[in-house]
Design goal:
Number of helices: 11
CATH superfamily of the largest domain: Outer membrane efflux proteins (OEP)
Mean pLDDT: 83
Largest sheet: 5 strands, antiparallel
Oligomer: single chain
CATH class of the largest domain: Mainly Alpha
Strand content: 5-15%
Shape: elongated
CATH architecture of the largest domain: Up-down Bundle
Radius of gyration: 39 Å
Length: 470
C-alpha cells in the first residue's frame, strides 16, 4: 500500500477564503443613486438678482426688533421644537446602540462554587468536598460582519439620526416664518381694530349732528335712521375686530411659548421693511438645500441601507465567543491556573417559512415608498417657491391699485360731504362714501399683511438661513 502524504492545509484555507470573498461580494449593496428632481428646470417666474436665502440669518431678514425678540423666544420655548430636539437625541442614541453591535462586548466575571456531600451520597467513607473558583474575561457572542449586515443596519440608524436632525432644522425654519406671519396678522388686527374704532367714532359724530338737525327741523327722520343703522353696523364691526385681535394674539402666544417680560417697541404694518432681495436660483440647486428635502433624502438612505441588511440575512452568520481567565480548586492558588476557551459557530438559513424573503420584500417596498416621498417633497417645495413668487408679483400690483382706489374714495367722500352740506344729495350718499372708504382701507391693510406673509414664506421656501446658523 502506498501511503500518500496528507494534503497541505494552505490550499484549503485559500479556497475557503476565496469562497468567503465571493459571497461577500454578492452581499455588497450598490451605492444609493439619488433620483433626479422631478420638477422643471426653471421657476415659472424668476426673481431679480438677489442674495442666497440659505445664507441670510433670520435676524438680518426680519428687521423689526419686537419680531426678533418673539422669534428668539419661540426658538427657546416652543414645545414642538423641544419635541423635535428630543427626537434627535433619541435617534442619536439609537445610532450608538446599532453601532455598538459591530463591536465585541467584553465582560469580567468571577464565581465560586463550594460543595459538601455526606458519605451516603458520595459513595465513599469520607465526606466529599468540591471547591471551584473562577475569574474570567469573556466576550459576548460577536458576529463577524463578512456580508455587511451590521454595517448596513448601522448606516440605516445613522441616516435616520441625520433625518431627525434635518427635520428639526426644517421645523425651526418653519417656526421662524410662522411666528413672523402670526406677528403680521396681529399687526393687521391691531390696525383693523383701530380703523373700526375710528369708523365708530365717525358714525357717532354723524348721528349726533343729524339728531341735532332733526331737533330744529333741518334734517328728516329718514336720514337719522340711516345714520343709526350705520352706527350699529360699525359697532358690530368693532366687536368682531376685537375678537379677531384676541385670536391673533393667542396664536402668537402659542407659537412663542413664553414671551419675554419686556418686549422692545415694534414697527407698524406699513413700516415693516423686508427689502432684502432673494435670489431664486435653479430649482435643482436650491431645493436640495432645504432641510425638509435633506431629511427626506436621509430617510431614503436609511431605507436603502435596510435593503442591504435584509439581503445580507440570506448569508451565513459567523459568531465568535471567547474567554480568558483563571480557575482553581483553592482561592489561594487561583492565579496559578490559566484557562481559556474559544467557540466559533456558523449558522446558515435553510428554511424559515419565507420569513427572510418577506423581510427583504418589506425593505424593498419601503425603499419604493421612500423614493416616492422624496420626490413628492421636492415637488411640494417647488410648488411653494412658485406660489410665493407669483404671490409677490400679484400682491405688489394689487397693493398699488388699492392705494389709488383709497385716494379716489377719500376724494369721493369729500365731494359727498360738500354736496350734502349744500343740500344737493341725501345723507345716504355720505354714508355710502364712508363705508366704501373703510372697505378700501381694510383691503389695503389685508394686502400689506399678505405681502409680508409672502415674503416670510418665500424666505422659508428657499431654505432661509439653512447655512447661516440659528
Amino acid at each position: 500500500m502506498v501511503h500518500r502524504p496528507p494534503r497541505p492545509a494552505l490550499p484549503r484555507a485559500r479556497a475557503l477564503l476565496c469562497a468567503v470573498l465571493v459571497l461577500a461580494g454578492c452581499a455588497q449593496q450598490a451605492p444609493l443613486q439619488r433620483p433626479d428632481a422631478p420638477v422643471p428646470a426653471a421657476w415659472p417666474g424668476q426673481l431679480a438678482d438677489g442674495q442666497d436665502a440659505t445664507r441670510i440669518h433670520w435676524r438680518s431678514y426680519f428687521g423689526d426688533p419686537r419680531l426678533q425678540a418673539l422669534i428668539g423666544a419661540a426658538l427657546e420655548h416652543n414645545r414642538d421644537l423641544r419635541i423635535a430636539a428630543a427626537r434627535v437625541q433619541e435617534a442619536r442614541a439609537q445610532y450608538g446602540i446599532t453601532r455598538a453591535d459591530r463591536l465585541p462586548g467584553v465582560n469580567l466575571g468571577a464565581q465560586a462554587a463550594i460543595q459538601r456531600s455526606p458519605p451516603a451520597l458520595s459513595g465513599i467513607d469520607a465526606q466529599s468536598n468540591a471547591d471551584r473558583y473562577d475569574l474570567a474575561v469573556s466576550t459576548v457572542s460577536f458576529e463577524l460582519d463578512f456580508w455587511g449586515r451590521l454595517a448596513q443596519l448601522s448606516e440605516s440608524a445613522r441616516a435616520s439620526y441625520l433625518a431627525t436632525e434635518e427635520a428639526r432644522r426644517a421645523l425651526q425654519l418653519s417656526l421662524v416664518s410662522d411666528v413672523a406671519t402670526a406677528y403680521f396678522a396681529l399687526l393687521q388686527q391691531d390696525e383693523a381694530l383701530a380703523l373700526a374704532r375710528a369708523s365708530l367714532a365717525l358714525r357717532e359724530e354723524s348721528l349726533d349732528l343729524l339728531t341735532r338737525g332733526q331737533q330744529i327741523g333741518a334734517v328728516q327722520e329718514y336720514d337719522v335712521q340711516q345714520a343709526t343703522g350705520a352706527l350699529e353696523t360699525a359697532r358690530g364691526t368693532l366687536f368682531a375686530a376685537t375678537h379677531q385681535q384676541a385670536l391673533a394674539s393667542n396664536r402668537l402666544q402659542f407659537l412663542v411659548g413664553q414671551a419675554p417680560a419686556a418686549l422692545p417697541p415694534g414697527h407698524t404694518l406699513a413700516a415693516q421693511a423686508m427689502d432684502v432681495p432673494l435670489a431664486a436660483g435653479l430649482p435643482g440647486e436650491v431645493l436640495l438645500l432645504r432641510p425638509d428635502v435633506l431629511a427626506a433624502e436621509q430617510r431614503l438612505a436609511a431605507s436603502h441601507a435596510n435593503v442591504g441588511a435584509a439581503r445580507a440575512a440570506f448569508f451565513p452568520k459567523i459568531m465568535l465567543t471567547a474567554g480568558l481567565g483563571f480557575a482553581s480548586p483553592a482561592l489561594a492558588t487561583l492565579f496559578s491556573g490559566g484557562a481559556w476557551n474559544f467557540q466559533p459557530a456558523l449558522t446558515f438559513p435553510l428554511f424559515d417559512g419565507g420569513r427572510t424573503q418577506a423581510q427583504a420584500d418589506i425593505a424593498e417596498a419601503r425603499k419604493v415608498i421612500a423614493v416616492a416621498e422624496y420626490e413628492k417633497t421636492i415637488q411640494l417645495a417647488f410648488r411653494e417657491v412658485a406660489d410665493q413668487l407669483s404671490a409677490q408679483r400679484a400682491l405688489a400690483q394689487q397693493l398699488q391699485a388699492a392705494g389709488a382706489n383709497q385716494r379716489a374714495q377719500q376724494r369721493r367722500l369729500e365731494i359727498a360731504q360738500a354736496r350734502y352740506a349744500g343740500g344737493m344729495v341725501g345723507y345716504l350718499e355720505v354714508l355710502d362714501a364712508q363705508r366704501d372708504l373703510v372697505t378700501v382701507q381694510q383691503t389695503a391693510i389685508e394686502l400689506r399683511r399678505a405681502q409680508l406673509d409672502a415674503s416670510a414664506q418665500l424666505y422659508k421656501a428657499l431654505g432661509g438661513g439653512a447655512r447661516a446658523g440659528t
